[in-house]
Design brief:
By secondary structure, the chain is mainly alpha-helical. The chain is built from 16 helices and six strands. Helix 9 packs across helix 11. It is globular and about 70 Å long.
């Protein structure tokens, strides 16, 4: 019987080889699993042909979803090649059926299928379980408690606050106009909308438009929006562990702490003020209730209010939703008006008429007036094609609004297409900027 005794060097070499072999085996198992899942997903979406995708990176590899400003061009090109709907792949296993026709949208929005939580879950560490991401009875209860906050009498005083913020922005623009110096419009509008929403939500004058430095809370909001976008686009970041260990994950946690600390401190101070007012029996000397006041005073039929965590989640949610979309939409409107002076003149005339000699618009004007679902059961469209349970469907709102089979000259800026007599000629699902249909509510 021969006994072989390995030296320490040989033993270490064997250990390294074993570790390498195990790592290689684990990687191979992961790759095989991804391939199996991808093949299963491709079979599911086989009735819906689409643009070729890389087996691992999906369509991210094709420079179509890089942040280079050409996303919409690529999506519209594919929409022309693949009518009604086509799949988009984000990595090897995540696929979204991209829908861009009213007939398909009608089928989706008239169901009670829940909003997809796959993309929205990336917001949860920041926004909590607020209206944007919550579902079921929690969403229903919060939405009912917050209804009072959207009454006209509550919203009307906000017009003056927005007007004040807008005047600050316009004063800055006048300086640029006199010097004929160019500037980035989006940055100015974004600061204005943030200034406005902080006044309406917190009654807080942030001075973010004129301050010498960047407000830490505002910078955190910018960073969080950017980092959530990066995480969705980079497939490995869909893993909590990988994102947590990454530099982007570290920046996300840091920005989240800043945002949460700011919100918690504002809520704490406001609760102290309300407590003192209640004890002294005084009435707050204020012409309007801001959104935070409404959150703190909301009560259900059992006289139960929102928890501190729920209040923070709703404040953070409305801070994000209240400025981001508006800041993106307004520069686009300005650009189109500048390119179409005839419509700009009509808009200007109506605004001057509404002002009637005042310097602030009191209420509404007339002329100047991406959603996902995850299926819990199979869904069949009007053409007979079916998607199974578990499939994620993305409603491409831009694709619908630019669909040449639905709209005449969709790339022409023509606000008159939204006159009532023209709207009546189209499908009600041809224009869905704010989505439509019922919100899914779970049974208790």
């Amino acid at each position: 019987l021969l006994v072989y005794s390995a030296s320490p060097v040989e033993f270490a070499s064997l250990s390294v080889n074993h570790v390498f072999a195990l790592a290689l085996l684990a990687c191979s198992a992961i790759v095989v699993k991804l391939l199996v899942m991808r093949r299963r997903g491709m079979r599911t979406l086989e009735p819906f042909p689409g643009p070729p995708a890389h087996w691992l990176l999906g369509h991210v590899k094709l420079n179509s979803f890089h942040q280079d400003g050409h996303d919409l061009e690529k999506i519209m090109k594919w929409s022309g090649q693949y009518p009604l709907a086509y799949p988009l792949w984000f990595g090897p296993t995540l696929s979204i059926l991209n829908v861009h026709h009213p007939s398909y949208v009608k089928t989706i929005l008239t169901t009670t299928e829940p909003k997809d939580d796959y993309a929205y879950k990336f917001f949860i560490p920041w926004l909590g379980d607020g209206l944007l991401v919550s579902a079921g009875q929690k969403w229903f209860r919060h939405r009912r408690l917050l209804t009072a906050g959207f009454h006209f009498d509550v919203l009307k005083p906000y017009v003056k606050l927005v007007s004040d913020s807008t005047k600050v922005m316009l004063d800055k623009w006048e300086v640029y106009a006199k010097s004929e110096e160019s500037f980035e419009l989006f940055q100015h509008v974004s600061l204005m909308t943030l200034d406005s929403i902080m006044k309406c939500v917190f009654s807080l004058n942030s001075n973010c438009q004129t301050g010498s430095g960047t407000n830490p809370y505002i910078q955190a909001v910018y960073d969080l929006c950017h980092l959530v976008n990066i995480r969705f686009r980079v497939f490995p970041y869909h893993s909590k562990a990988i994102f947590h260990l990454s530099l982007h994950g570290y920046k996300f946690r840091k920005a989240t702490r800043i945002a949460h600390n700011h919100t918690v401190e504002v809520i704490r101070k406001r609760k102290e003020v309300l407590k003192i007012e209640k004890e002294q029996g005084t009435v707050k000397n204020k012409r309007y209730m801001d959104f935070l006041d409404i959150l703190l005073s909301a009560r259900d039929e059992h006289q139960q209010g929102l928890s501190d965590e729920d209040i923070r989640a709703e404040v953070d949610t409305f801070m994000f939703e209240g400025h981001d979309t508006t800041a993106s939409g307004m520069p686009w409107i300005f650009y189109n008006l500048a390119c179409n002076p005839e419509h700009q003149e009509k808009c200007r005339d109506e605004i001057l008429q509404a002002l009637d000699g005042k310097d602030t618009v009191d209420w509404y004007c007339h002329y100047s007036n991406y959603s996902c679902d995850i299926l819990t059961k199979p869904l069949t469209f009007f053409d007979g094609r079916t998607v199974p349970e578990g499939c994620i469907i993305g409603i491409n709102i831009y694709g619908i609004h630019m669909n040449t089979t639905v709209w005449e000259n969709p790339y022409v800026f023509d606000p008159l297409r939204f006159l009532l007599e023209n709207v009546a000629k189209r499908s009600p699902h041809a224009f869905v900027p704010f989505s439509a249909g019922p919100r899914f509510v779970e049974e208790t």
